[in-house]
Amino acid sequence: MAVPTSDPDYPPPTGTTLDVEAEEEGLRLDHFLVRKMPSCSRARLQRWIKAGLVQVNQEERQPHYHMRKGDRVAVSPPEVQRWHLAPEPIPLKILYEDEDLLALNKPPGLTVHPGAGQSSGTLVNALLHHCPDLGGIGDVQRPGLVHRLDKDTSGVMVVAKTERAHQALIKQFKNRQVDKRYLALVWGRFSENQGEIEEEIGRHPTQRHKMAVTSRRGRPAATSWRRLQEYPGPFSWLELKLHTGRTHQIRVHLSSLGHPVVGDKIYGAGDRRLLVLPPELTELRPLVRRQALHAWKLRLKHPCRDFELDLEAPLPEDLQKILDFLEQQRL
């Protein structure tokens, strides 16, 4: 089994044997390994456990197995196969940066990390050029990343530059300690000024590339919304707050209300819905080139220092042009 990596602290592909002491009794297996192998992330160790690369007393166990005094844990790290992610001089709009992290305003159309069919031209390639030491921080295909935005969503993102910052930021996102605010132009009008959407989100039962509101294997998801303005169309300009971080959460939740994000090709009919606009709004069609969704603000605690960061990404030019046009129609 080969696992791609660029982590200089990655353990060599030789066996490691660990004995459980009295003070370690009761720890979960994955927590025990994190304590014993601090250079490895918990997520990585959990993958090894599930892949059968970790045995307790010569038996495979689950990550939640509770250790007993005298247990002997054998760890067989997978063979190292290095990724070659090329740094690329793609311009970045830096909002804040220090030795531990950076925050940037991601432009629309930029894929965040390499994946199937794309190994270049991503935000990760740009980050590796800007921060040559970023390789090995977190996931080897997603160095430094602690969250992501869809390709056609613009806005603020935060990236860890050290392992300490990476672990601390992941913990904040997981524990819902990060205040995440978005702006979106959606179809239709609301009868109220604000509201909450609490619907479980899971994989779509038949279209596997999509997510859907579903109670079958769905996970709890909560989104708050507040109306900022109404426009002819009809359209509504919303501020949204994410209380959870499910894939496509805002897009799925708004679509489930019958108010999909304008320009959303997966959950909102994309350009097709723009074809039935009244004559006075036809000039809007060429302005909508992607989903009108922007990650506006992030508020979080600095992962290594004692202060909070208030990060704000200015509205990109394409969305501003849309709002300017609609504002003229409203007056």
What does this structure look like?
This protein is an alpha+beta fold and 331 residues long. 18% of the residues lie in helices and 27% in strands. It has 6 helices and 17 strands. The chain has helices spanning 29-36, 42-50, 123-130, 163-174, 249-256, 317-330; strands spanning 2-4, 16-19, 54-56, 59-60, 72-75, 79-81, 94-97, 101-106, 154-160, 179-187, 194-198, 201-203, 211-213, 222-231, 235-242, 293-301, 308-312. Strands 7, 8, 9, 10, 11, 14, 15, 16 and 17 form a 9-stranded mixed β-sheet that branches. It has a 4-stranded antiparallel β-sheet with strand order 2-5-3-4. The protein has a two-stranded parallel ribbon with strand order 1-6. Strand 3 and strand 4 (59-60) form a beta hairpin. Helix 1 crosses helix 2. The longest helix is centred in the C-terminal third of the chain and has 14 residues, at 317-330. The termini are far apart.
Which short descriptors sum up this protein?
single chain, 331 residues, alpha+beta, 9-stranded mixed beta sheet, 4-stranded antiparallel beta sheet, 6 helices, 18% helix
Describe how the helices and strands are arranged.
Elements lengths: L1 E3 L11 E4 L9 H8 L5 H9 L3 E3 L2 E2 L11 E4 L3 E3 L12 E4 L3 E6 L16 H8 L23 E7 L2 H12 L4 E9 L6 E5 L2 E3 L7 E3 L8 E10 L3 E8 L6 H8 L36 E9 L6 E5 L4 H14 L1
Parallel strand pairs: 1-6, 9-16
Antiparallel strand pairs: 2-5, 3-4, 3-5, 7-8, 8-9, 10-15, 10-16, 11-14, 12-13, 14-15, 16-17
Helix pairs in contact: 1-2
Q: How would you briefly describe this protein structure?
A:
The chain is built from 6 helices and 17 strands. It is of the alpha+beta class and 331 residues long. It is elongated, with a radius of gyration of 23 Å.
